[in-house]
Amino acid sequence: MPTEASTWWDPDGDDFLDVCVHVVAPAGPGVPQSFYRNNRDGTFTKDTVNAIALDEGH
Predict the structure, then answer these.
(1) Measured distance between the N- and C-terminal CA atoms of the chain, rounded to whole angstroms
(2) Cβ pair 17, 9 in contact under 8 A
(3) What number is the average pLDDT over the span 23-49?
(4) Is the pLDDT reported for residue 58 higher than 50?
(5) pTM given for the model
(6) In angstroms, rounded to a whole number, what is the distance separating the alpha carbons of residues 44 and 28?
(7) What is the pLDDT, as a whole number, of residue 19?
(8) Burial class of residue 51 in the structure, from the number of CB atoms within 10 Å of its CB (0-12 exposed, 13-18 middle, 19+ buried)
(9) Cα distances (Å, whole numbers) of residue 50 to 1, 2, 14, 25, 26
(10) What is the dihedral of CA 49, 34, 40, 7, to 10 degrees?
(11) H, E, C per residue of 1-58
């Protein structure tokens, strides 16, 4: 069963925390992470073009 972890931070400096969800086990290289940008209204949008979103766990 996959294990997921999340990282909350503000990479764009807008004072709203964004979140990155990582699959940490039994993943390995090639498993993408998901990056969600804070919409500043209590919701998030999956970012599919950000460099973080495109990282495949290397």
Answers:
(1) 20
(2) yes
(3) 80
(4) no
(5) 0.69
(6) 26
(7) 92
(8) exposed
(9) 27, 24, 16, 23, 24
(10) -130
(11) CCEEEEEEECCCCCCCCEEEEEEEECCCCCCCCEEEEECCCCCEEEECCCHHHHCCCC
